[in-house]
Amino acid sequence: MKYISTRGDAPALNFEEVLLAGLASDGGLYVPEVLPTFSKEEIASWAGLPYNELAYKIIKPFVDDCVEDADLKQMIDETYAGFNHIAVAPLKELGTNEWVLELFHGPTLAFKDFALQLLGRLMDYALTKRQERLVIMGATSGDTGSAAIEGCRHSDHLDIFILHPYNRVSEVQRKQMTTIIEDNVFNVALEGNFDDCQEMVKDSFANQDFLGGRKLGAVNSINWARIMSQIVYYFSASLAVGGPHREVAFSVPTGNFGDIFAGYLAKQMGLPISQLVVATNKNDILHRVISGNDMSKGELVHTLSPSMDIMVSSNFERLLFDVYGRDGAAINDLMAKFKTEPVQLDKQRWEKVRELFDSYACDDEETCKLIETVAQETGYLLDPHTAIGVAAARECNRDTSVPMIVLSTAHPVKFPEAVLKAGLESPQLPAHMADLFEREEQFTVLPNELSTVQQFVAKNVHND
Ligand SMILES: *Cc1c(COP(=O)(O)O)cnc(C)c1O
């Protein structure tokens, strides 16, 4: 399996190279040259498989021969054995044909564990084989940081530096990152906001001279391996409610278009999906482009669903590449223009996007109202991101006879502010992290200054 860049000008790579590369050298994102597809019969034959075995079936064609079969199996088995629910991704029924897919039973209580627990193992495996080391640098507004650190902490070949905005992440989120004390884990609290953190990581990727020959690896959803891992739970959820013999619909809280793009791929690979709903908060670029062909950066708004607070959805480029007939030059032009001004898609291309997706944007007030209503109706407590998913599902549902599955991306304990604003009590931390607030923390506060941060990284990376 070869991977090609959405901007058409970078060399095609194999899985291992894509895993370690992150962004393509032409600024594009890597996608498979040809997607694997599965027949209905084949998908049906997977009914009843444990999650790890299903994951192997779906992930194997993407990894191809870059990893020995037995090793791939073992990494997948270990990844999902570390989840705290026997079903790994259990489905809960909220109402008639309305389901919640709980993706928060991993070590850090958010769906990012599905991908990052495997990503860390895959990177470690590839680097061991190559006898190389990699430096991970990432910015986080909360969930990515802890999931990435949990995924990389046991690797002998990775040093991981996570930048979070000082005093601007929730206490649970900060503690989940800063209480992991390992030789290769560095938490930086930057005296700036999330955009400053992201800017610093971007600048560091663009010019890696400060690392003296070592290379940077990516853990955000531009890394193909993250998207790949997320395709699996669309299949598991469908199989659990009678697929592939019946269609299902999904509603997905998304900011960067990573999670919903995995659903789009599942559909292209043969899973009968009748509808894909994009659920966003006030940072609604995805909703604006899907509903009104307005692809323009808005102002960043801080919301009660902070993991979707972004202005630009990087993974949308992967969809545009398909919608524009895989014309890398056209995407290159479009993205160059979008850097400096709002863009509109060609009418015909935009209509294709509208055929594929419905969308809805929800403000904080509606989010809290929904958390409250659902708790009253069913006794089930939603986290604010999932609440937006439920709101969008109800708003956009095209056919109530089809099961609508809302992806629940985080445990409500991670976002107590929204739960309290909804007039409810915040739940208890799960048993395996009940002592989180007593654990020792370690992080370094640094000024919002690129050279200082880069010096800190260069000083702390390990040399073999
Ligand atoms: C990261 C995250 C999202 C958004 O995921 P995308 O990669 O933008 O699709 C939604 N909810 C939670 C809780 C998250 O951590």
UniProtKB/TrEMBL annotation:
Q: Which GO terms describe its biological process?
A: threonine biosynthetic process
User: A Gene Ontology MF term for this entry?
Assistant: threonine synthase activity
EC number(s) recorded for this UniProt protein: 4.2.3.1
What residue stretches are annotated with the Threonine synthase N-terminal domain? 2-80
List, separated by semicolons, the cofactors it needs. Answer: pyridoxal 5'-phosphate
CDD domains, alphabetized: Thr-synth_2
Pfam families given in the database record: PALP (PF00291), THR4_C (PF24857), Thr_synth_N (PF14821)
Annotated Tryptophan synthase beta chain-like PALP domain residues: 92-332
Signal peptide residues on this chain, from the entry's feature table: none
**Location of N6-(pyridoxal phosphate)lysine modifications:** 112
Going by the UniProt record, its keywords in alphabetical order are: Amino-acid biosynthesis, Lyase, Pyridoxal phosphate, Threonine biosynthesis
Is the keyword Amino-acid biosynthesis in the record? Answer: yes
Q: Which domain of life is it from?
A: Bacteria
User: Which pathway or pathways does this protein act in?
Assistant: Amino-acid biosynthesis; L-threonine biosynthesis; L-threonine from L-aspartate: step 5/5
Q: Which reaction does it catalyse?
A: O-phospho-L-homoserine + H2O = L-threonine + phosphate
Q: Which family does it belong to?
A: Belongs to the threonine synthase family.
> What is the official name of this protein in its record?
Threonine synthase
